[in-house]
Amino acid sequence: MRIFTFALLLSSIGLTTLAQNRPGMQLPIRKATSTIVLDGKLDEEDWKNAAVAKDFYLNFPVDTTFAAFQTESRLTFDDQNLYISFVCYDDSTEDIVQSLRRDFDFENNDNMGVYLGPFNDDLNGFYFQITPRGVQSEGLISGGGTSGDSYSDTWDNKWYSKVTRYDDRWVAELAIPFKSFRYKSGARQWNITFLRWDRKRNLVSSWIATPIQYIPASFAYGGKLVWVDDPPPSQMNVSIIPYVAGLSSTDRLETPAIKNQDIAVGFDAKVAITPSLNLDLTVNPDFSQVEVDRQVINLTRFEFRFPERRQFFLENNDLIEQAGFPDVRPFFTRRVGLASDTSGLIQQVPIVYGARVSGSIDKNWRVNTMSLLTKEKTSLGLPNQLYTVAAVQRNFWKQSNAVVLYVDKHSLGVTPADSLKYFNRELWKQKISDNDTTTVLNNSNRVLTVDLDLLSEDNRWYGSFFYSASFDNYLSGNNSAGAGFLRYTKRNYEIVAGHTIIQKNYNAEAGFVPSQRIYPGQWSSFINGTATLFPTSKTIALMGPSVGVNVVGIPDGTVVDKEFSTGYRINFLNTSGFGIDYTYTYQQLTFNFNPIDGDRYIRFGEGDVYTWSSVSVNYQSDSRKLFNYSIQGRAGGFYNGALYRVGGVFNYRYQPFGSIAVQYDFNAVRLPEGFGEEDLILIGPRLDLTFTDKIFLTTFVQYNNLADNVNLNARLQWRYKPASDFFVVYTENYLPQHFKAKNRALVFKLTYWLNI
């Protein structure tokens, strides 16, 4: 009997393994024969006859069993819409839905999503997600969905949904107009997969069984949507999004104060050149409704990279924004239309027009080209500037591709002779406290880059390589940069390594190369390893150590930076986590520098050598609780002194109508006399209210004593129709000593999305 029971157990295990849905599994889709009504009932015959994506398998915290609470998904279509339904089996446990705001935070909300690759190239696509309260989110997928950077939630479009809650399940119906996304006419297969994020139980499950070390929404672990009936042929699709905006502002930093009132009009347009290739146009764009950047206390020698949030730049943005490596980006869209003033605050530079052609030509070819003209901004010392960018991607093998990128920044009216007077290498090296590295005015600056990405079919191996060269009026020779990166991922460990070379005259004016002003001409190498253990535990989900080494040198062979780090992390089943790290740092300065303020304090000298060690700890509480928090602490050396830091976020939510969060960052810098002894404070309360799923209020206050500024930004949004909004935005900057206003502005903006 024992032998029989053991054999039966082995057989059951084998059957379970065989029953897993495997990559490439097909899901047929047929055309609806009747009208689909979005009511969350699924009582139409087309839903009853549709093929079902079922038998969802867990990906986290274990990947060895089916999900206890199963999910079913079905698809059908008509001439206008792609219809998708979800049946998410559940119990009466309260759902976690933090707010009613569109484009919710994925990790902190229960949600269900479909991940579509209409080009069937295993690399690019779209996703649509919905919560049990019917809150929508959509975005773009690039790079096969293999990393967090592959998903961009800033893309916005029209689609419709309805969610109905029952005692043992919640049901969602989605209607996505074919006009709302790009696809290739005549393609009989699409990439597709489904992922359910059950945050209240901290469970991740997906239609295709995916090993725990990989993202279950990636196309490598997806299936195939097979069109039994042909999808409707793509038709001419034109969307016009006009806007009108009013501004009233006062600048009290000038004497007398300058008051300004203005009305602006402009528009965006989206024109489908082909079913999968789109023309975007913008005339006199206004980005006043875009959320302000969250300030940081930056004690490093390098510029901080803020994310792009402006809608015009986002679709297919990976082709240009992810060219190169994180420390060498040949093009950075925030260089267009944004620049820092003398106080370090980011100011808008008006854009006259922009035109962009992006999308897929066929399964193997994808492009993103754009041209933008900015207005002269005399207060920032900027002339009219014309930006031309073109990227072409060629896909090959299963998930690999090559990209060629060309960038041309042209300062109109600035002759080659004029540009020489703007260039001073010593000044270029010393102005490291600026928030904008574009301090050199060149009549023309061009960059040509070739990128190669290689990814194995199972996502185990990943390699990335690039070569880039810049061309301008005054720097010639030694004008290239290049790098190589390798990653190997297994269930219990991951190893990454890379090497970068940047020659001293490489100058990507419209790019992001922060280290080039620190030591023009450099090489760097790093290797990091992480081990992951999955203990049999009722409290711990995973844990493991990590170790890393990073070395930076200059062309004469001198090593100017070394960093060794090691740490250990523990992630608990209740979503909390703890980590501890030790770091040893070596720096030989290549310029005069003070991390607090080089004007008020003694600067460390070029050639000085400093070494120090520090210990960091971090803790994230159970994020499912109404009140949750994160805290990070750091103690140890810092150049010739010490640095003690405490930072994090306190958050309380009134589900699902809003939350209040307080971001805090306190740094006690203790350097010897004359070098600076400061307590640097950044506090950022944020109130986020969602009165309904169409009316939102966000109020954000930031106090930064290093910048000697208090910033208030309040934004009211009314989404009166899908993708159409009315905004009221109020912004004010204060002197923190007595709250005297520096400047203030009140803006209203009305947009309307019109499909033709």
Characterization of the model:
The chain is mainly β and 756 residues long. It has a domain at 18-227: Immunoglobulin-like (Sandwich). The chain is 5% helix and 50% strand. It has five helices and 40 strands. The chain is globular and about 80 Å long.
Question: Which helices and strands, and how do they pair?
Answer:
Elements: H1 2-19, E1 26-31, H2 45-49, E2 57-60, E3 71-77, E4 81-89, E5 111-117, E6 125-130, E7 136-141, E8 151-152, E9 160-165, E10 169-177, E11 189-198, E12 203-206, E13 223-227, E14 238-251, E15 258-274, E16 277-283, H3 318-321, E17 338-340, E18 346-348, E19 351-360, E20 365-374, E21 385-396, E22 400-411, H4 416-422, H5 425-430, E23 444-455, E24 461-472, E25 480-489, E26 493-502, E27 522-531, E28 540-553, E29 559-572, E30 577-588, E31 609-620, E32 627-638, E33 641-654, E34 658-670, E35 677-690, E36 695-704, E37 709-721, E38 724-735, E39 740-751, E40 754-755
Parallel strand pairs: 1-3, 1-13
Antiparallel strand pairs: 2-12, 3-4, 4-10, 5-6, 5-11, 6-7, 7-8, 9-10, 11-12, 11-13, 14-15, 14-39, 14-40, 15-16, 16-19, 17-18, 19-20, 20-21, 21-22, 22-23, 23-24, 24-25, 25-26, 26-27, 27-28, 28-29, 29-30, 30-31, 31-32, 32-33, 33-34, 34-35, 35-36, 36-37, 37-38, 38-39
